[in-house]
């Protein structure tokens, strides 16, 4: 497969992943599927790891990759393949942007999973207040604490953990795909659109 065609496949893969990340980040604004005051939303949600990092910053590289197959930049110096090589080189820069965006999302998600969600906890068995009762990830193996420590909203821990885990996994996949495009872009720049074949293929 030629470099441009392979890049297009990567772009097609990245687009739905970016959309899923945006949706996951939006859902995190509704802990446990409930609407709460903004001050009660987990801090890491406001970092917009899914919307900004794995979403917006990933859409730009995806669009660039999708257009590489037929992009020759109008050629240069009478050589059509020259334009394609430049396009492949520019795709490396956009792939780097994608790696940074996905990496940001991965870091935010990992921190959020470790800290746990903000929820209503019991103080002295009587008073209740919003707090972040888990701070070192010890709750991950103690499912009993999910409902006994976090009283409200119902199911907030599993909601938080599931969505941030999705963002974490997708972020890693996005980083891998963008890293692959860096290699693909280098090959396309050095060898032309099709290594061992015609650049115009």
From TrEMBL:
<keyword id="KW-0472">Membrane</keyword>
<dbReference type="InterPro" id="IPR008661">
    <property type="entry name" value="L6_membrane"/>
</dbReference>
<keyword id="KW-0812">Transmembrane</keyword>
<feature type="transmembrane region" description="Helical">
    <location>
        <begin position="45"/>
        <end position="66"/>
    </location>
</feature>
<feature type="transmembrane region" description="Helical">
    <location>
        <begin position="161"/>
        <end position="180"/>
    </location>
</feature>
<protein>
    <submittedName>
        <fullName>Transmembrane 4 L six family member 4</fullName>
    </submittedName>
</protein>
<dbReference type="Pfam" id="PF05805">
    <property type="entry name" value="L6_membrane"/>
</dbReference>
<keyword id="KW-1133">Transmembrane helix</keyword>
<comment type="similarity">
    <text>Belongs to the L6 tetraspanin family.</text>
</comment>
<feature type="transmembrane region" description="Helical">
    <location>
        <begin position="86"/>
        <end position="107"/>
    </location>
</feature>
<feature type="transmembrane region" description="Helical">
    <location>
        <begin position="12"/>
        <end position="33"/>
    </location>
</feature>
<dbReference type="GO" id="GO:0016020">
    <property type="term" value="C:membrane"/>
</dbReference>
């Amino acid at each position: 497969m030629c470099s441009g065609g392979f890049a297009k496949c990567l772009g097609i893969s990245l687009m739905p992943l970016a959309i899923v990340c945006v949706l996951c980040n939006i859902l995190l604004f509704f802990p446990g599927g409930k609407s709460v005051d903004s001050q009660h939303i987990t801090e890491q949600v406001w970092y917009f790891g899914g919307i900004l990092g794995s979403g917006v910053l990933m859409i730009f590289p995806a669009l660039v990759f999708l257009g590489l197959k037929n992009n020759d930049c109008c050629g240069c110096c009478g050589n059509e393949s020259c334009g394609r090589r430049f396009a492949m080189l520019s795709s490396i820069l956009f792939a780097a942007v994608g790696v940074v965006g996905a990496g940001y999302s991965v870091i935010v998600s990992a921190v959020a999973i470790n800290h746990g969600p903000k929820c209503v906890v019991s103080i002295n068995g009587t008073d209740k207040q919003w707090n972040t009762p888990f701070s070192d990830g010890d709750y991950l193996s103690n499912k009993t604490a999910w409902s006994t420590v976090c009283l409200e909203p119902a199911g907030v821990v599993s909601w938080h953990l599931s969505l941030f885990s999705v963002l974490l996994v997708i972020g890693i996949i996005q980083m891998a795909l963008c890293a692959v495009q860096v290699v693909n872009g280098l090959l396309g720049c050095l060898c032309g659109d099709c290594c061992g074949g015609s650049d115009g293929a």
